[in-house]
Each structure stands twice: as C-alpha cells, then as structure tokens.
Amino acid sequence: MHELGIANSLLEAIQAELLRHAGARVQRVGLRVGELSGVDPEALRFCFECLVKESPFEPLPLDIEFRPRQQTCRACDRTFPVVDYNTICPSCGDDGTECTSGTELELSYLELEEL
Amino acid sequence: MTTRVPMERKVLNENDRIAAELRARFQARGILCLNLISSPGAGKTTLLERTLRTSNRQARVAVLTGDIQTDNDAQRLAGFGFPVQQITTGGTCHLNAQMISKALEQWNLDELEILFIENVGNLVCPSSYDLGEDAKIVLLSVTEGEDKPLKYPSIFFKSELLVITKTDLLPYVPFDLARAKENARRINPGIEILELSCLTGAGLDAWQKWVAGRGKRACAEEAAR
C-alpha cells in the first residue's frame, strides 16, 4: 500500500510542471498506469483525491489510462497483448519477445487553463 | 482557454534521478549492488547472515537493511565484521533512493565491492522504486504459495534472480516446486532461479557463485561502457 506516496509524487510532479507554465491553472490530469507497475489504479485515485481535497488544486479530476502488458517479437517485430501470461509470439512462434508496454507510471498530460 | 499539454514524465522521476546518480557512483567504483525483496519472513536476513558468515574477512561487503521499526536485523548482521546499517522507515513500506543515498553518506564507497540492500518485507511496494541496484533479487520461501509470482507479477517481472528458500522444509509442506518455477517463468521467462536452505547449507555455494559471477559481469559491463 504505497499509493499515498505515489499520489504525493504525482502531485509534486504536477507542481514541478506548473513552474514551467506560469500563470496557468491545472484543470485535469492524465496518468498512465501499467499492469506491471505495482500500483493499484483505484487505490491511487483514492489517495490522490484525499491529497487534492481542500488544497489549492481542488477540484482536479484524474484520468487514469490502464496499460495492459504487451510484448514485441524481436524476430518479426509483431507487438501483441499478453493473454494468460503467454509471451510467445502469436505470429512466428518465437519466444524471443520483450516487454514493450505495461510498466508505465507516467504523467501523460495536464489540461491547463491560461489565466 | 484550456489546452491539453503532453507531459511524458515519470511520476517517480525524482526517485529515479537519485537512483541514476547512485548507479553511476556504484559503477564508477565497480561496486555490485543487489536489492533483496520478499514478503516478511521469507529469509532475507538469514540468507545475508549465512552470506556474511561464509564471506572472506577481506571481502569488501556491506549491508543496508530496511525495516519499518526496530534495528533487530542490523543487530543480527553486525557480528560478522562487515559494515551494516539499519534504515528504519518509520511506517513507509519500502526503501526509496533517497534513503539509500542518505545512509551511504556514512560510508566511504571506495572501500566497498558488494552492497546488499535488504528491502522492507513486502512484495508490492519495493517493486516500484529503483534504488540504483544492478539487480533486484526476489526470495520466495516454500512455506508460501507457489502462485505468488502470479499474485505479485511486478516484482517477479523486475527481478533478475528468484531464490527459493527453506528447501529443507519441502518434505513437510505441500509446495509444488516445479509449479512455482513455472509460474515465475510465465511472468518473466528470463528469470534465473536458485534453490537453497540456510538451515542445511544446501544451495549456498551456488548462491555465492551467482553473486561473484554477477559482480564480474557488472565490472565487464562497466569496462565495455
């Protein structure tokens, strides 16, 4: 249960970005959370709402885009979603695939209102 | 007017920045840093006790051990003649890069070759935090379920090595060793696996060899850079 710490880091990241957009007010936050990130999206949303409440940021809706695990085949370059833990390439049967999506924990966008 | 501004910024980028600094400091000195992660009671401290006990006195090994409360683990590990430091997080369920950086201020890194970090007992949160390590190592004891890799995929995905501990108990517990390994490989096909018992000593040689080999590999990688 480290989502409160993650939510706090998210708020710090937003504050750091706002320094580069002087005079803007943040209206909405976009976040990408991967299946393998070790973060529970709903627990994170709950913690984020607690931190934002009664802060200068309130209200601040959080859009969470959940990213399932994807592998890319080194032999044929096919990218495919991992179903039932199967990481073998469905096109060419090669097992030399690498994880190319699913570990994200990223601030993807801010919606800013210029004041 | 409202505009959507793309960010592409990692949420933990402050942690990752400090971790990258640590990694650069370790690499510059040829230090192998290993981050040990498991659920509470899987045997991280016991494995480190056995490792220190059998290490050459001249070996330049040090341990940072993390817990929410108490310095019991540091006390257990202190008697072997190697530098040991407790990090007490006071409630935080994982170590972060800043804690490691602060603890290392106490030591001269030029005197180290291997740094073991014993994370807080927890299979979830430590997986999110880079500590500047060369490799994460996950421990799983045979008294736990063989489905742990499927339940906690993040840490098994990010670990280079799985150490299955307490194998002396295998005759007494319904633990399916083959299934446990299969589950770990379903999450991470490339994961290396060792089995050992700190009680009987079975498998400890292979563990010591793995650590020594990983240290050489880290040096070779540094030399090739």
Structural commentary:
By secondary structure, chain A is of the alpha+beta class. Chain A has helices at 3-19, 41-52; strands at residues 24-34, 62-67, 70-73, 79-81, 97-101, 105-114. Chain A has 2 helices and 6 strands; from the N terminus they run H-E-H-E-E-E-E-E. In chain A, strands 2-1-6 form a 3-stranded mixed β-sheet, with helices on one face. Chain A has a 3-stranded antiparallel β-sheet with strand order 4-3-5, with no helix packed on it. In chain A, strand 3 and strand 4 (79-81) form a beta hairpin. Chain A is elongated and about 55 Å long. Chain A starts with a helix and ends with a strand. The model of chain A has no long low-confidence stretch (mean pLDDT 94). Helices cover 37% and strands 21% of the residues of chain B. Chain B contains 8 helices and 8 strands; from the N terminus they run βαβαβαβαββααβαβα. Chain B is of the alpha/beta class and 225 residues long. In chain B, helix 1 (13-29) packs across helix 4. Chain B is globular, with a radius of gyration of 18 Å. The interface between A and B is medium-sized, with 34 and 31 residues.
Quaternary status: heterodimer
User: Which pair of protein chains has the largest interface, and what are the residue counts?
Assistant: A-B, 34 and 31 residues
Could you spell the SSE succession of chain B in H and E letters? EHEHEHEHEEHHEHEH
> What are the low-pLDDT stretches of chain B, counting only 5+ consecutive residues below 50?
none
CATH fold-level assignment of chain A:
hypothetical protein PF0899 fold
What is the end-to-end distance of chain B? 48 Å
Q: What is the CA-CA span between the terminal residues of chain A? A: 37 Å
Q: Looking at CATH, which topology of chain B would you report? A: Rossmann fold
**Helical content band of chain B:** 25-40%
Radius of gyration of chain A: 18 Å
Quickly count the domains of chain A: 1
